[in-house]
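TOKENISED FOLD:
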Amino acid sequence: MKTIHVKIERNKDGFGVYADNEVFSGMGDTLGQAIENMVEGINLYTETMKEAKLSYPSYLNGGYKFEYEYDMQSMVSYYSGIIGFSGLEKITGIHQKQLGSYAKGESSPRKEQTERFVTGLHTFGAELNAISL
């Protein structure tokens, strides 16, 4: 199974996604729509290549999965809209003002801060995933 590395960027119009080392990309109002748009492009490309009897990478017949990467500004901006800066501060240990600066693109986090942010979100996600009914 091939892993396609996909970068996610949030902008004023919604979301953009693009695959590293591939020609595929997508856009949408939501992250889900952007990914769906990219998958539609992959499917259209595959169908077109089949109809034209041209070669294309065999993994595009369903032998792939996506691995996603946000840029820090987009990630903070997206999650602050869901959880808020106060909640993100509790989850990550990064001060609200600093998170706001990242979200606005006023400053760029060091690698350690990015890792701290992602680790905090993963820990929070694991805690949510452990909840049972």
In short: The chain has five helices and four strands. The mean pLDDT is 91. The longest helix spans residues 31-51. The longest strand covers residues 2-11.
